[in-house]
Amino acid sequence: MPNTNATLSLAVVGAGPVGLSLALHAARALPEARITLFDARAADQDVAGDPRTIALSLGSVQLLQRIDAWRADAAQSIVEVHVSQQPPSLGGMLSAWLGEPEVRIRAIDEAVPMLGAVLSYGAIVAPLQAVWLSACEREPQRLASRFGVPVAALKPLVNGVEVDAGIAERFDLAVIAEGGVFSDQVRKAVMHDYRQTAWVGTVTLQDARPGVAYERFTRHGPVALLPLKSGQAALVWCVKRDDDPVTELDDTQRLAVLNTLLHPEAGRVVAMSPLKSFALGLNAERTLTDGRTVRIGNAAQTLHPVAGQGLNLGMRDAFELVLALVHSADVDTVLRRLEWKRAPDRWTMIAATDFLARSFTWQLPGAGAARGLGMAALQALSPIKSALARRMMYGSR
């Protein structure tokens, strides 16, 4: 007999933004289900202080609002995204003819209050964890937290899965929502090392326009500025690993080089924090499900940050899974439907980010000019640009 949602037992492995969002949404949408959240970190570990910068789409913001875990005071709204390209070597005539290629996506043009928001990882996870722990206190008979308890193994069972976290427990469904970063991951079925490095940090801007996110395509890779409060911005500076212009530079030199790369409209960078680096690659499962185990977020796909969509895709994975469980009492049917329903959004985003990331490794003459022509065409074709904006905000619907 298939399990009904009234008696569903769900294990969520990973208490990051995706896992916590899934657990909270499931707790509310499936009021009779038994839900247990596992994470290796201790419950009293300070997650609020994690400074990593995250860009959330409007859709993700709305999902957090739905589960009362959105803290607007900790976020900087994105009201415009400005994408441009440094004139390539073959782009002199193109620039003279069309001007410097650029695309502007504005919230006001899409009739939305913002395109998304920027905030720290800790400002996302801490409210989610607080809301989840409060829910566990209210309903200890069906909601449980196992912090400080790493999951050692998952064993498939008939109509279920065994979760081994010191004590083996049976669940109807297990969701793995902890994925880590590309360099630390076991290689999945779809994998490509872009041989690129992302340098990340915080910069202070002079004459910056508030709420504007900038992405600049250069010959080494994309440079992005995500707006923060008080005239600061989070920097993501992607370069080729084998031709890295950042490694050997001191802070003063990095500041000078960065100012030559950015669009003049972005403002002048007057200060920069120490930069950290990490490797970039694609690492994705071909399918989300394996028996009664589901992978979502970085556990299912790790993407290049060029489009800033990795976490947003994981949030949509989580909410679509819960929605499917609400609409069907048969877990196996839910998992079959989840595969085909998530495929368009998932593989479109994987393909788009993979295409953009690989394009910086092409040695073909005129590749940069071709990209510039594409940007100019996109800016001129408002309906297509609006469709792209909606896809970035909400994914494939």
Question: What this model shows, in words?
Answer:
This protein is an alpha+beta fold and 397 residues long. 33% of the residues lie in helices and 29% in strands. The chain contains nine helices and 21 strands. It has helices at residues 17-29, 58-66, 92-98, 121-138, 251-261, 310-327, 331-359, 367-380, 382-394; strands at residues 9-13, 34-39, 53-57, 76-78, 80-85, 102-106, 116-120, 143-147, 153-157, 160-164, 168-171, 173-176, 190-206, 212-217, 222-227, 232-240, 268-272, 276-284, 289-290, 293-295, 301-302. Strand 15 (222-227) and strand 16 form a beta hairpin. Helix 6 (310-327) runs antiparallel to helix 7. It is globular, with a radius of gyration of 22 Å.
Main beta-sheet annotation: 9 strands, mixed
Order of helices and strands: EHEEHEEHEEHEEEEEEEEEHEEEEEHHHH
Discrete helix count: 9
- The number of distinct structural domains comes to 2
Q: What's the total number of strands?
A: 21
User: Unreliable runs, pLDDT <50, ≥5 residues?
Assistant: 1-5
The CATH topology label of the largest domain is FAD/NAD(P)-binding domain
Q: What do the pLDDT scores average to?
A: 89
User: In percent, how helical is the residue content?
Assistant: 25-40%
**Can you tell me the CATH superfamily of the largest domain?**
FAD/NAD(P)-binding domain
Molecular shape:
globular
Q: Quaternary state, please?
A: single chain
Secondary-structure content class: alpha+beta
Q: What's the gyration radius in Å?
A: 22 Å
Terminal Cα separation, in Å? 32 Å
